[in-house]
Design a protein that fits this description.
Elements (H helix, E strand, L loop, with lengths): L1 H21 L3 E9 L5 E7 L5 E7 L8 E7 L5 E6 L7 E7 L3 E7 L5 E8 L5 E7 L10 E8 L2 E7 L4 E7 L4 E10 L4 E7 L4 E9 L4 E8 L5 E7 L6 E7 L8 E7 L8 E6 L7 E5 L12 H16 L9 E4 L3 E3 L2 E17 L8 E18 L5 E8 L4 E2 L7 E5 L2 E8 L2 E7 L9 E4 L8 E14 L2 E11 L6 E10 L2
């Protein structure tokens, strides 16, 4: 009997290994640029037509001036066009955004009251460049322009002064800038900002709190900056709404999906959904403890202790509060409703000794954000949970709070993946089925005989259909030849 069990176990693991291997992605295309982290800066941006925009800033000092080069690549990573931007060396790229026809780049200069806006035609690489002086529009000279989105020839800029969030509207045809009075709030008020091209609305979700309870305001504007609607969402229960994402499209059936807390608004207790324009404004709450897979990242013993503790609190009619920081991704529509992806993270600190007068006190140094796991939740069009799943993240760290996990859909499968230095970690899920989440594939060089000895500032982006684009800096050593430093783009395809 024991031998039979061992035999079945071995057969099971062989079968699982075969399944995992058969689903391993392929990397059919790669392009390299001679570069290193010390003398260059690259930005990679997938476009709506399934091509790829790449921006490169070379400041190696090998030429008389720095170079700003932009390129567009097709789905096989063949270059479609390329051009050089004749801008000043002191310009600093702040943000990139693209719509169906143009790529827009925001540059800041050493003058705090000045910014440069570049508009590149996707078809032929022609471009226009405009420099704006905030003082010409009676705006504060120390206003910090952060990011933007474009909607029907109007750019919405998120900006900050010392104490406030300010939203600017730039008419790209007249070059006129105006502030949006209805969007003047505390610096940390902005939860999410979307440019919904289907409804032609700029959408802002604002978080407000009186110190005890939190609520959300949803404000929607026309492309020209005119207020279209305001909706205030506040819980009638002992819950605070922290942040939220709006479903795209269909202005008469918008759904707000977000996180809520119990008392402390720094930490999420679960996910809520609400039909935005429903007169009843019902809010549906899903505590993380009621999700099937939310705690899968924990060891079994720790998970069981958590559930036992939660049961004791429930028996005493007390709230068992959780302490999770959650980063929401944009909502994705799929055939049965909506798909929400969110990542759990925490700020990580380390201690360092600072010597002063013979003493060595310990100082806390911020290392970055550590991501523990990613959840994927499917909701129907009424905001009711259909299924949930999760992906345990190993060695996932970012300097800034950005989306670490990327997602693509391939048939009835969902692939979640992220970059881990020389490799890509991924998990393939089928709704709420239990599958392995420790799959890993190496980023391949041009030649299989070459060896990647170092990798820095690597990343992964969802590109189109069942394809990711992997990028970053590598030191590659061929057999019998000198090593080279490159910035690479690898096409990663899941079958």
């Amino acid at each position: 009997m024991l031998q039979t069990r061992w035999f079945l176990l071995v057969v099971f693991w062989i079968f699982q290994s075969y399944i995992a291997y058969s689903q391993e992605p392929v990397q059919p295309s790669r392009v390299e640029f001679e570069a290193s982290t010390s003398d260059s800066h690259f930005e990679v941006y997938p476009l709506q037509d399934s091509t790829l925009f790449v921006y490169a800033h070379d400041y190696s000092g090998l030429s008389t001036r720095e170079k700003f080069v932009f390129s567009r690549f097709d789905q096989n990573l063949n270059k479609i066009w390329s051009g050089e931007i004749p801008i000043q060396d002191d310009y600093s790229l702040q943000h990139i955004y693209a719509d169906r026809n143009y790529v827009y780049l925001l540059f800041l200069t050493y003058r705090p009251w000045e910014f440069v806006f570049l508009k590149i035609n996707n078809l032929n690489a022609s471009y226009s460049e405009v420099t704006y002086d905030l003082r010409d529009y009676d705006l504060p000279a120390d206003l910090k322009i952060d990011r933007f989105k474009v909607l029907d020839n109007n750019a919405y800029f998120i900006a900050y002064d010392l104490r406030h969030l300010i939203v600017l509207n730039l008419d790209l045809q007249t070059d006129q800038i105006k502030t949006i009075p209805a969007l003047y709030d505390k610096p940390d008020a902005l939860a999410t900002f979307n440019a919904d091209t289907a409804t032609q609305r700029a959408e802002f979700v604002l978080s407000e709190s009186n110190g005890k309870i939190g609520r959300l305001q949803v404000k929607r504007f026309s492309p020209e900056g005119n207020l279209h609607s305001i909706k205030i969402l506040q819980s009638k229960l002992n819950r605070s709404l922290i942040t939220g994402q709006l479903s795209p499209g269909d202005s008469i059936a918008k759904t707000l999906v977000g996180t809520y807390s119990l008392r402390d608004m720094r930490y999420a207790q679960g996910i809520f959904t609400s039909q935005l324009f429903n007169d009843q404004t019902d809010i549906i709450y899903y505590d993380f403890k009621n999700f099937r897979h939310f705690f899968d990242y924990m060891r079994k013993g720790r998970r069981e202790r958590l559930y036992r503790k939660a049961a004791r609190f429930k028996a005493k009619d007390k709230d068992f509060r959780l302490r999770y920081r959650i980063l929401l991704h944009d909502i994705i529509y799929y055939d049965k409703g909506m798909l929400l992806v969110a990542e759990a993270y925490y700020p990580q600190y380390s201690s360092s000794s600072t010597y002063s007068y013979g003493l060595a006190p310990l100082a806390r140094v911020f290392d970055g954000y550590r991501y523990t796991h990613t959840i994927a939740c499917a909701f129907d069009k009424e905001g009711k949970l259909i299924w949930d799943n999760s992906f345990t993240l190993k060695d996932a760290m970012q300097e800034n709070l950005v989306e670490n996990t990327q997602l693509i859909r391939s048939g009835d499968k969902i692939i979640m993946a992220y970059s881990d230095e020389k490799s890509i970690r991924y998990k393939i899920i089928h709704q709420d089925s239990v599958t392995q989440d420790n799959s890993k594939v190496a980023v391949q060089p041009n030649d299989p005989t070459e060896k990647v000895t170092e990798a820095e500032k690597t990343g992964l982006l969802s590109w189109y259909n069942n394809v990711f684009i992997a990028y970053g800096y590598q030191r590659v050593r061929p057999v019998g030849g000198p090593a080279r430093n490159v910035f690479y783009l690898n096409k990663v395809v899941f079958k």
